[in-house]
Amino acid sequence: MTDIKLQVPVMADVVAKGETPEYLYWVGCAGAFDDRYQKVARAFAKILNHLGVTYAVLGKEESCTGDAAKRAGNEMLFQMQAMQNIEILNGYEVKKIICTCPHCYNTLKNEYPELGGNYDVINYTVFLDEMIRTGKLDLGNNPFKGETITYHDPCYLGRGNDIYDAPRNVVKAVFGEVKEMKRARSFALCCGAGGAQMFKEAEKGDKEVNIERTEEVMDTKVDKVASACPFCMTMLTDGIKLKNQEESLQNLDVAEIIEKALEL
Predict the structure, then answer these.
(1) Region 195-224 average pLDDT
(2) Closest Cα to residue 10, out of 48, 50, 61?
(3) In this structure, which CATH number among 3.30.450, 3.40.50, 2.40.128, 3.30.70 belongs to the domain 11-129?
(4) CB 228 within 8 A of CB 157
(5) Is the Cβ–Cβ distance between 82 and 115 less than 8 Å?
(6) Nearest to residue 155, comparing CAs of 164, 146, 165, 142?
(7) Are 195 and 158 in contact (CB under 8 A)?
(8) Which of 26-40, 115-129, 135-149, 247-261 has the weakest average pLDDT?
(9) β strands within 136-205, DSSP E
(10) Which of 6, 31, 198, 257 suits a disulfide with 27, CB 3.0-4.6 Å?
């Protein structure tokens, strides 16, 4: 994170002061290395700072959760990555983890326990929804007045972990309404990048999955499409570019919507 105005506490520094943050923010590979998703990580960190909750990131101590290795069939590499992370997390006595990536969320929540990593893992859309419902986040400003939006369900968030309402509630808190695509919620179409598909060449076929999904977004005739996953953001953004819709359609992460509403 290069924003000089943004102060993000690092777990090693916080613990060295004798403090124990309530949350560990798991940034994920995309939040650390992808230029586009770094903006989402910054947006969420700004929101955490705005809320005044105590949190920290692992910084250079954070490694990949091993999701991609496991989906690609390399169980040994997954377990090596997982055990390394669990050793660090347990060393800091981490109890609560917030994730902005559904793939990190799914792996930490559902696959780390059998390896000794037992944590209260929270998806950031659920966290934001709770903050709004309890009045801790006051969204009095609507910078998107007059604009319409749809929401794309990430597979690992929706079908994988049954989180459908929280991200919609967050988007509705700003936009007032979410225009649903013809395939939504448990019937939503994958962006085409999950299951380690992000890291391999496309197979033969008539159309890329992300183009099909982008066309479904376009069918809703909205100004914005909200997403809650780095893979989905990459695929939708590419689809928007390939369909030459950059002037009329924008992909924003749920955290970015709240960041703009709060004028952070």
Answers:
(1) 81
(2) 61
(3) 3.40.50
(4) yes
(5) yes
(6) 164
(7) no
(8) 135-149
(9) 149-151
(10) 31
| Tokens describing residue 119 | 């944590």
What would the pLDDT profile of 4-49 be if each residue is shown by its tens digit? 578 999 999 999 999 999 999 999 999 999 999 999 999 999 999 9
Cβ atoms within 10 Å of 142's Cβ, excluding its own: 14
The pTM assigned to this predicted structure is: 0.93
Specify the pLDDT at position 142: 83
Are 195 and 71 a contacting pair, CB within 8 Å? yes
Domain ranges of the chain: 11-129, 140-261
Buried b (16+ CB within 10 A) or exposed e, 2-40: eeeeeebbebeebeeeeeebebbbbbbbbbbebeebbbb
- Residue 182, classified by CB atoms within 10 Å of its CB into exposed (0-12), middle (13-18) or buried (19+), is exposed
Which amino acid makes up residue 108?
A: L
* 174 vs 98: CA distance, rounded Å: 22
Give me the phi and psi of 65, to 5 degrees please: -65, -20
Percent of the chain scoring above 90 in pLDDT: 86
Structural contact between residues 202 and 165, judged by C-beta atoms closer than 8 angstroms? no
Phi, psi of 133 (to 5 degrees): -65, -35
- Which sign, positive or negative, has the C-alpha torsion 110, 113, 117, 121? positive
Pair 47, 262: CB distance under 8 Å: yes
Residue 184, C-beta contacts closer than 8 angstroms, at least 6 positions apart:
151, 153
State the residue for tokens 């700004």.
46
